[in-house]
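Practice set, problem 2.
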Amino acid sequence: MTVENGQPYGTESSELRKMVFASLFAAMIAAGAYMKIPLPFSPVPVTLQVLFVFLAGAILKSKWGTLSVLVYALLGIAGLPVFAGGASGIGVLFGPTGGYITGFVLAAFIIGFLSEKSGKSGFFSNALFMGTGLLVIYAFGLTQLCLVAKFDPWQAVSLGLLPFLPGDLLKLAAAAYIASRYRI
């Protein structure tokens, strides 16, 4: 291995590669927001964002996975229409569904952190880490539904978790499979 400027040769290209993938995942999370199915009984729509948050954490790990989700959130705050259904602005973060976006950031970090610490990247370990991340997303999302939409805890669970659980578990299984097959 050749050393250049005190760093192993190739380190810069590895960091550049991660930066490019972090940008790509931010774009995929935004694209997942446009794949929206509104539910008439809930303020929370079905989207593919969770799938890409899972993948960002598992593939990019804690630092770059979290940065990719933060870039996504900051783009939305800055006014780009990247939130569910093309919404944007800081008001979305303070609205009934903003807790889910906040949960995305922490979930990507936790998934990446658990993956780094365990050193495992198989289907079942990824599914476990992503399941932990999903619990974080739900915790933040349901808390904000209670605070902003004035739902009691049971209403929040019945309108902000139960209708989404089957689909989110399918997304989790797909993401765990993909992440177990792919490394950057």
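Problem 2, part (b): a different protein.
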Amino acid sequence: MTSHVRYGIIGVGAVSDFHHVPGIRLDPRSSLTAICDPNEALLAQRSSEWGPVRAYTDYRQLAADPNVDAVIIATPNFVHREQALECVRNGKHVMCEKPLGLNFQESAEMYRAARDAGVRHMTAFTYRFAPSMRYVRHLVKSGALGTPRHFRSQRFLDLPETSWGWRQIKKLAGAGDLFDMTIHRIDFAQDLLGPIRSICGAVAQFVPRDRTADGKPCPPSEVDDWSSLIGFFESGAVGVWEGSTLMKGHNNSGVGYEWAEVNCSEGSAAYQLTDPNTIVLARNGRDFEKLPVPAEFLVAPGSPRDPSQGKPSTVFRYDLVYELTSAILEGRDAVPGFHDGASAQAIADAVLVSFEERRWVDVQSNPE
């Protein structure tokens, strides 16, 4: 059994630089050996910054590289499926950014291909690794808060109203805020409270985004700036989600605002992205109070990351690579897997159907 994982990265933009490369470098069991991007100038820059690495402009070459064990896919949404399937065909373990595909069908296909090939697969649902979210999950799953009744999520960003590039073209992105931000909250709601069985939802577009940041005209946006849904879980619990990129005042140095709360029969708990090393907790008959997250929940079990170092809203993201490396070396499934990504996408797809047809939608989110 191997004791070291050699990573390749397809897509060397900001997400890889911000999340994945630091995670690889932090874990002595992993190394970055190859990178791929069609942008040759950026590829040369990253080779200099991240090297020494082999550099490719064709993802098929990286997927076939015998010196790569696992691949991280951090590319535009519309190429996730073809790149992941190529990596799986070559026997590579794969982590893919969300959304896995442009719809549930693509995501489910990716899951089944990885499952059948026997490779480890992971969806990059970053916020599951936030310390306070990990502790909220412990409180819910251990029964410390009683029976879960309600989930509430708000994720707000105050972003420029200029073009998003490919992210605002429906055939390339699938959707806007719904697929980019709200889908994360759908995932950890299902992780906390189980499958969502039916939803009603809505999306809205408020700005045309028909100018680039330097003022040049461009095709207008085709996707949502705001998304919201109400859902019933199979357990009988209910949930409410709202996300927007246009909430003025919620910049917070680029972090934005996030509040995710679970209300149970014996108490409530909430996670905040802006202060992820603390939890907001209340028991019956008491007011909410902010408390430190216990030390054992500040990092993924065994992670070499020092939780006292770095910006708290950033550094927990490094544990994604630690989880995939651990799953590969231990011969177990990575969490969250492609099945989790497909399940969340089924809910997000249903939001679009619900809004278009103005009705409740029952969801079948099992990708098997």
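Answer key, part (b): The chain has two domains: 5-126, 128-311+343-357. The first strand starts at residue 5 and ends at 10.
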